[in-house]
Design a protein that fits this description.
36% helix; homodimer; 11 helices
């Protein structure tokens, strides 16, 4: 399927300019001015493409081609919000490429049999409120009873959205959701293939670990009688990294946040609080990884007579992509001449597809991220890869909807 | 030499109450109200003891017994300021015990041959301004040309002290300075002896080490292609501790402060800044310790292709106590029946004696700290040990001045 690559790039440039920050990157927080302006731009493109446009109760923007045979819809798209100093492609690519795909299909194949839609999902990043996957959760009817918080409800009203109507955003008429996204990592770039089909989105567990020793004078306390919480933590950090490395891909474990108390140059650390982010495509494997880390941290603390407290901050199960959709994407890639064939890749990052999987079949395509960079102004993908990804997406939608 | 132990304890209680903080401990920052009140109390005690009292240009408070033969003075004392939430004994003990010693000597031996003084040094802790050892530096004429900073000069004026006269506080008529102090560590408590004679005050080097890796998405970056600044730092922290432990006492090395960037739960740390506090009684040994740590950190960073920058924040040489004064303290302890004989101990903490060593012979006595605790409300010493320490101090002053 032939995609207008120049138009694709131009639209990505236009979106990137909306919310541009003076010190680099762009920022389109949910329900903010840049977010609204970007939505208006996408809405105009949808109108120009002849799509039927509607905005749902949380601000997801839908553009639809009716299907001659009716039935459940085939949907593509991604999110329109960004992190601070966000890049040009995260989220935006899936919307713009989806729009290009629908335009190309409408032009070359006319009206589909099944309804075909592109969606600009209002929020995925936790970009403004602690409510990430807000847009996709609304679509699957999974907004919690305490949501939105009052500041967020106020922000909705400022955009003409009524929080009381959120339940109306839920849909049960989606058959398949396909999302094109950048990898946000460097695995695909290092492989010979220019495209990946996502096998699963990793389950994430976030742990908080508190190590308690004894704060002592750094000058008067000999090494052999210290109870140094940071030296023990250092052993734990190395254990976390080496256990995950020994398990091999796709296991990852990261100590990202760490706080030392009292954090004084001449005091032996008495307490350290740190986090562990654990991911794996397989829930059993992730639990085994977590179990080994908990066990080794316990041993390290016990050997040194230190206190240890561990708690789970968050736990999300891995989500497998639907096998039928994966097979369809394989076929679309083969039809598009993707060579070597697409890599099968676990997504370590979270995506709307993992939420939508609760209500429909889902699948994802990844194009390479140059240098693996993402969530930063350097986020980039070779234009040839963008065109290829959008073309395979269009072919997959064609196979599903025509 | 018989010391009035009850009076000693009562005076320590009185000083501890001046500057008491609602949430525990006491705080007498330099030139503050509590500092001034404590000075007035000590001044009254000095007057009551029949000492000639004077306050020098920075607020050090001197109480003097004139000597029949004149000559240079024998001095004892310690500092009157405290850290926040400071304890009952740090600094205060050396002043109160020195005063008790002079009272006991005046009562039992009358007028000394050589002048005998007790000093309440105005500041040692860096308790308010970044000007620690302020009092002792003034005594040795080592106040820098840019000192005091303007806020500190203003604080001096509020206490009736003229910053233009600081140079007049310098003295070249001190023969020997002896300081009784709590150990602030747990080595003496674990030894059979109730007293220690300090061999040297450790030299301190403070390093700042910056490890630069690459911030990456914690979900999308496989373990084998990460450049994690924190995992490398963990190896460095373990190296710092194990090198010092392998060297054995009195070598100590401490990573006390640490900052992770960006410090986000789901981002691989791109940069870590941490400090190393290194101490040893012997300058050559400390430099060797530092050299090994620098070398191993360099190897760890190089193996992982990480950036590494190291700089020295502060470097103070170790100061040996004068051999004659150490021998005199041994004799005084033997005379006082100290059994087993005093431990020879390096002081890992800094003390005024290390500054005064530039102008006179210095020596220090340590009494045990219960549980090694100091700079906190739990700071305590067995009353029998306080009495013993004060008695040995008095005997040493007697040997020098009579």
């Amino acid at each position: 399927m032939r995609i207008d690559a120049k138009l694709l790039e131009r639209r990505l440039d236009e979106l990137y300019a909306i919310g541009a920050e003076p010190d680099g990157g762009t920022y389109r927080p949910l329900y903010g001015a840049a977010w609204a302006a970007a939505g208006e731009r996408v809405q105009r493109w949808m109108n120009d493409a002849g799509l039927a446009v509607r905005r749902d109760a949380v601000g997801n923007l839908w553009g639809r081609l009716e299907g001659s045979a009716g039935g459940k819809a085939v949907v593509t798209g991604s999110h329109i919000d960004t992190v601070r100093h966000g890049g040009r492609l995260d989220g935006a690519l899936g919307i713009v490429a989806g729009l290009s795909a629908l335009e190309a299909l409408a032009k070359t194949r006319g009206k589909p049999k099944r309804p075909l839609e592109v969606v600009a999902i209002c929020e995925e990043e936790g970009s403004r409120f602690t409510a990430n996957f807000w847009g996709s959760r609304a679509i699957v009817g999974a907004i919690g009873p305490g949501e939105p918080e009052s500041a967020m409800a106020e922000a909705m009203r400022e955009r003409g959205l009524d929080p009381a109507l959120i339940a109306s955003a839920a849909r049960d008429d989606i058959d398949t959701f396909i999302e094109l996204h950048i990898e946000q990592g460097a695995v695909l770039e290092a492989s010979p293939s220019p495209l990946a089909i996502v096998s699963a989105i990793a389950g994430t567990a976030h742990l908080e670990i508190v190590v308690t020793g004894r704060p002592d004078h750094a000058g008067t306390t000999p090494m052999d009688i210290r109870r140094d919480a940071l030296v023990a933590t250092a052993a734990m950090i190395q254990a976390v990294a080496s256990i995950a490395a020994a398990l091999g891909r796709p296991a990852v474990a990261t100590v990202g946040k760490l706080r030392v108390e009292p954090d004084q140059i001449n005091v032996v650390p008495g307490r350290v609080v740190f986090t562990v982010d654990l991911r794996h495509a397989d829930l059993g494997a992730r639990r085994a990884l977590e179990e080994r880390i908990r066990s080794l941290c316990g041993t390290i603390a016990a050997e040194r007579s230190l206190g240890l407290a561990m708690r789970t901050l968050q736990e999300r199960p891995p989500v497998s992509m639907h096998p039928d959709v994966r097979a369809l994407l394989e076929r679309a890639a083969a039809d598009g001449g993707v060579s070597p064939p697409p890599l099968n890749l676990m997504s370590g990052a979270g995506h709307d597809a993992q939420v939508l999987a609760a209500r429909c079949r889902v699948g994802m395509l990844f194009v390479p991220s140059i240098g693996g960079r993402s969530h930063c102004p350097e986020e980039a993908t070779d234009p040839a890869h963008l065109e290829l990804g959008a073309g395979v997406l269009a072919r997959a939608l064609e196979l599903l909807a025509y």
